[in-house]
């Protein structure tokens, strides 16, 4: 019973973190009118959180390994609560962007959850516990869209920040009270220089990719090159540091490398639900395939993404126990790829896209659970936090690439309807094909994973 409550407490923090990733998305179109700002300026409400998450997650993951994952997890929930209060009290766009940056730092909890479970849950229950956390990651993301849309329609956007601050506080208290253990420490020096260089490199890369459609290649290409060069310098320094921020030899070990590459693909397919399917549902139906639904209705149509993850978590646990992570991660990748093939053929009615969303949800929970277990089984206990942080950053990177690529396609292959650019059928067809290809690439990469790994044991 005690372990069950502890798992629920950790899963609640995963639910909150995934909620924060999407909770502001439906409000971005209305915020320019609220703050009398341009759409480009308002887009930083989303970009700030992503940049902060990518820049700090490797550092907070490593701090969890050194100081104790539970301590750092609770600290990050406190950062979310503080940032949310800042947002709730803000009356300017700058205040909201600052609040979102705080929340982005707090998204590092997604990298620490698995490590806390590894330190506190019995090996027999670890697969199910990680499946629950993986499902929570998806459920929060799916619920964030309709929740944000509903609160935005009925109340005021400040309510979203007050809600986040309350939930973060409750999650922190629950983890402090109900999670026993999770404070395993690893004597080591924290590599501050490595953290700063890595943060700079990741910030440049993510900023270049996310802003490519807005800033164009003349600015973003040099920025991307600078970021990649900085990451190359960081890697060179890490290989010569006694206590590196991230053990690159561990991260580039065969199974971990393949899992991380698959994670990039899963980040792409996961983002295609809010970035492609939701866009199709809300797009005006002038001369394209758009279904012209309002924001709340469109959000409800794709809710099967989260519900199927909830129902698919026990299935993923049983399949992993029976067939191993390799088979399940490949099956999940194939299922997500097949989902977008279905969407390519069926995009005329909301119920058809609900099926697509449900298939992606089941496939994603299989991928996320298998990936977490594969990493836990391949790295030592003292490297769990950093390894999972890298995996989280790569998932966000995959979603960032999807946002840039799909956004460019939908904006570039469009027609005008009542003076508003509307994506055409070929734009949606190409986007669905790319999302399906990402799933199939993940399936192919899974062939290079070991056929079966035993359940990880606590050291």
From TrEMBL:
It is found in: Cell membrane. One of its GO terms (molecular function) is transmembrane transporter activity. Its main location: membrane. It is a multi-pass membrane protein. Keywords: Membrane, Transmembrane, Transmembrane helix, Transport. SUPFAM superfamilies: MFS general substrate transporter. The keyword Lipoprotein does not apply. Coiled coil: none annotated. One of its GO terms (cellular component) is plasma membrane. The chain crosses the membrane at residues 37-60, 72-91, 97-117, 129-147, 159-178, 190-209, 215-237, 257-276, 296-316, 328-347, 353-381, 393-415, 427-449. The keyword Hydrolase does not apply. InterPro entries: MFS, MFS_dom, MFS_trans_sf. Residues 6-454 form the Major facilitator superfamily (MFS) profile domain. Pfam families: MFS_1. This is MFS transporter.
């Amino acid at each position: 019973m005690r372990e069950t409550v502890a798992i629920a407490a950790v899963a609640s923090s995963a639910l909150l973190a995934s909620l924060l990733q999407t909770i502001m998305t439906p409000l971005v179109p209305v915020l320019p009118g609220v703050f009398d700002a341009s759409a480009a300026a308002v887009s930083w409400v989303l970009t700030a959180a992503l940049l902060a998450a990518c820049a700090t997650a490797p550092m907070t993951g490593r701090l969890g390994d050194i100081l104790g994952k539970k301590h750092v997890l609770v600290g990050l929930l406190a950062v979310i609560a503080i940032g949310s209060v800042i947002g709730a009290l803000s009356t300017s766009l700058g205040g909201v962007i600052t609040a979102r940056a705080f929340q982005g730092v707090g998204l590092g909890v997604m990298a620490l959850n698995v490590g806390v479970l590894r330190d506190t849950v019995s090996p027999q229950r670890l697969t199910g516990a990680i499946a629950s956390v993986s499902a929570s990651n998806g459920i929060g993301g799916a619920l964030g869209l309709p929740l944000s849309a509903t609160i935005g329609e009925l109340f005021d956007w400040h309510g979203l920040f007050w809600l986040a601050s309350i939930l973060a506080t409750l999650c922190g208290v629950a983890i402090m009270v109900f999670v026993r253990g999770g404070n395993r420490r690893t004597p080591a020096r924290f590599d501050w220089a490595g953290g700063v260089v890595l943060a700079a490199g990741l910030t440049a890369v993510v900023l270049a990719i996310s802003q490519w459609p807005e800033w164009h290649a003349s600015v973003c290409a040099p920025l991307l090159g600078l970021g990649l060069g900085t990451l190359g310098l960081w890697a060179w320094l890490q290989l010569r540091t006694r206590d590196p921020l991230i053990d690159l030899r561990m991260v580039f070990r065969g199974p971990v490398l393949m899992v991380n590459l698959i994670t990039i693909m899963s980040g792409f397919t996961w983002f295609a639900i809010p970035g492609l399917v939701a866009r199709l549902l809300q797009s005006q139906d002038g001369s394209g395939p758009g279904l012209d639904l309002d924001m709340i209705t469109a959000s409800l149509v794709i809710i099967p993404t989260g519900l199927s993850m909830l129902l698919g978590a026990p299935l993923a646990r049983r399949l992993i126990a029976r067939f191993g992570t390799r088979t399940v991660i490949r099956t999940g990748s194939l299922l997500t790829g097949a989902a977008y093939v279905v969407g390519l053929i069926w995009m005329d009615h909301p119920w058809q896209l609900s099926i697509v969303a449900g298939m992606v949800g089941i496939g994603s929970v299989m991928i996320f659970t298998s990936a977490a277990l594969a990493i836990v089984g391949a790295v030592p206990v003292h490297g769990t936090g950093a390894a999972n942080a890298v995996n989280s950053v790569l998932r966000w990177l995959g979603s960032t690439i999807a946002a840039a690529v799909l956004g460019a396609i939908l904006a570039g292959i469009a027609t005008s309807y009542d003076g508003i650019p509307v994506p055409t059928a070929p734009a949606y067809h190409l986007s669905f094909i790319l999302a399906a290809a990402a799933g199939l690439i993940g399936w192919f990469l899974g062939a290079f994973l070991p056929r079966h790994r035993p359940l990880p044991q606590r050291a």
